[in-house]
C-alpha cells in the first residue's frame, strides 16, 4: 500500500498534526471574535432562548440581506481556505455532514438555534425524490450562490395516516429568501445542475412533535421519528436494555409506557412485552381501554393480534415468554 509522504510525516511526528490543527482552530477563533460575528452570535443566543427572529435584528438581517450573509460567510471562508491550503491534512473545526449531494457545515449553535451553511451538489444516479420530510421548527434561509428549480411542499390535510400534499414550483437563485414553520411546510430540491449554497438559521419547537416522512405519490406515511434528541436517546436505551435481557428494568420500562412521546411509549411497550409478557400485556390492555389515549387504536389492534397468537396472555399469571 502506498502512503503519501505528507501522511507519513504526520504519522511519524504527532507535533506536525497538532500544529496543523491548531492553525485551523486559530482561524475559527479569530472569526468568532470579530465584532460582526460576535454581534450575530449574540442575536443567535437570544433567538435560541426563544426570542422572535424579528427581535434579533443582526440575525434577521443575515437571512434577508445577501450582502450581510456573504460578508459573514466570506470572511470565514477566505481565511479557512487559506488555512486548509497551508495545512491540507488539517480538520476543518466545524461539525459537518454529507449525504446524497447535500453538505451541511454548522457554523454556530446556541440553545435551540443553529446557524448552518449548506451546499447542494449534483450526484450521479440519484433520481428525483420519492418522499418528503417535515420537522417541527422554524427555518429561515437565504441563497448565497447558484440557482435551482425547487418545490414548496405543504401539508393541507391528514387522514388515516395519509397526508394531502400540495406542491408549488419555485426558482431559487442568489438573494432568494425562504422561511418555513412547523410540520406543514418545507422545500424540495429536485435536481441540481451546478452548485447551490444556502445559509440557514433554524430552531426546533420548544417541545417538537415527531418528524414525519410522506410518499410524494400518494401522501402515505412512510416514517415517523422522535422530534427530540432526548427521546431518541431514551428509545435507544430501551432497545439496549431489551437486547441485554435486563428483566430487572421492567418496572422502569413499564412506567415509560405511560409517559413521553408516542414513539417512546410504543418502544417501551415492545420491550416490556419481550422482557415480561404478563406485565407488558397488562400495560397494553390498559392503553387499549383508554379511548382518549393517542395509542388507543394501535394498542387495541396489537392486543387482538397477540391474543389470537398467544391465548395464554389472557391470564395475568402467564409465564413470561418472548411474545
Question: How would you summarize what this structure contains?
Answer:
The protein has helices spanning 5-12, 14-33, 35-48, 57-62, 66-86, 229-243, 250-256, 262-275, 277-289, 296-309, and strands at 96-99, 102-110, 113-120, 131-134, 137-145, 147-159, 162-173, 177-181, 185-191, 196-204, 211-215, 221-225.
Please give a structural write-up.
The protein is of the alpha+beta class and 323 residues long. It folds into 2 domains: 5-225, Jelly Rolls (Sandwich); 229-314. The protein has helices spanning 5-12, 14-33, 35-48, 57-62, 66-86, 229-243, 250-256, 262-275, 277-289, 296-309; strands spanning 96-99, 102-110, 113-120, 131-134, 137-145, 147-159, 162-173, 177-181, 185-191, 196-204, 211-215, 221-225. The strands form 3 sheets. The protein has a 6-stranded antiparallel sheet with strand order 1-2-3-10-5-8. It has a 3-stranded antiparallel sheet with strand order 4-11-12, with no helix packed on it. Strands 7-6-9 form a 3-stranded antiparallel sheet, with no helix packed on it. It is globular. The N and C termini lie far apart (51 Å). Residues 317-323 have low confidence and may be disordered.
Task: Please tag this protein with its features.
about 325 residues, alpha+beta, Jelly Rolls, 2 domains, 6-stranded antiparallel β-sheet, 3-stranded antiparallel β-sheet, globular, disordered C terminus
Amino acid at each position: 500500500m502506498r502512503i503519501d509522504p505528507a501522511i507519513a510525516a504526520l504519522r511519524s511526528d504527532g507535533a506536525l498534526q497538532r500544529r496543523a490543527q491548531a492553525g485551523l482552530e486559530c482561524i475559527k477563533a479569530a472569526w468568532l471574535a470579530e465584532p460582526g460575528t460576535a454581534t450575530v452570535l449574540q442575536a443567535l443566543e437570544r433567538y435560541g432562548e426563544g426570542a422572535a427572529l424579528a427581535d434579533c435584528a443582526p440575525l434577521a438581517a443575515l437571512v434577508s440581506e445577501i450582502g450581510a450573509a456573504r460578508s459573514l460567510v466570506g470572511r470565514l471562508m477566505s481565511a479557512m481556505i487559506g488555512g486548509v491550503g497551508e495545512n491540507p491534512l488539517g480538520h476543518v473545526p466545524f461539525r459537518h455532514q454529507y449525504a446524497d449531494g447535500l453538505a451541511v457545515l454548522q457554523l454556530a449553535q446556541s440553545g435551540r438555534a443553529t446557524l448552518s451553511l449548506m451546499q447542494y451538489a449534483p450526484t450521479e444516479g440519484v433520481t428525483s425524490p420519492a418522499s418528503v420530510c417535515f420537522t417541527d421548527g422554524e427555518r429561515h434561509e437565504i441563497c448565497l450562490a447558484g440557482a435551482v428549480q425547487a418545490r414548496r411542499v405543504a401539508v393541507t390535510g391528514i387522514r388515516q395516516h395519509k397526508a394531502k400534499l400540495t406542491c408549488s414550483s419555485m426558482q431559487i437563485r442568489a438573494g432568494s429568501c425562504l422561511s418555513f414553520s412547523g410540520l406543514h411546510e418545507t422545500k424540495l430540491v429536485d435536481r441540481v445542475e451546478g452548485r447551490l449554497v444556502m445559509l440557514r438559521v433554524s430552531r426546533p419547537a420548544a417541545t417538537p412533535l415527531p418528524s414525519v416522512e410522506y410518499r410524494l405519490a400518494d401522501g402515505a406515511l412512510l416514517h415517523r421519528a422522535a422530534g427530540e434528541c432526548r427521546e431518541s436517546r431514551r428509545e435507544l436505551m430501551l432497545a439496549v436494555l431489551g437486547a441485554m435481557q435486563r428483566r430487572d428494568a421492567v418496572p422502569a420500562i413499564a412506567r415509560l409506557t405511560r409517559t413521553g412521546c408516542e414513539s417512546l411509549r410504543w418502544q417501551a411497550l415492545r420491550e416490556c412485552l419481550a422482557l415480561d409478557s404478563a406485565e407488558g400485556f397488562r400495560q397494553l390492555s390498559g392503553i387499549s381501554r383508554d379511548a382518549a389515549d393517542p395509542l388507543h387504536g394501535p394498542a387495541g389492534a396489537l392486543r387482538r393480534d397477540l391474543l389470537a397468537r398467544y391465548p395464554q396472555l389472557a391470564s395475568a399469571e402467564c409465564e413470561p415468554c418472548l411474545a
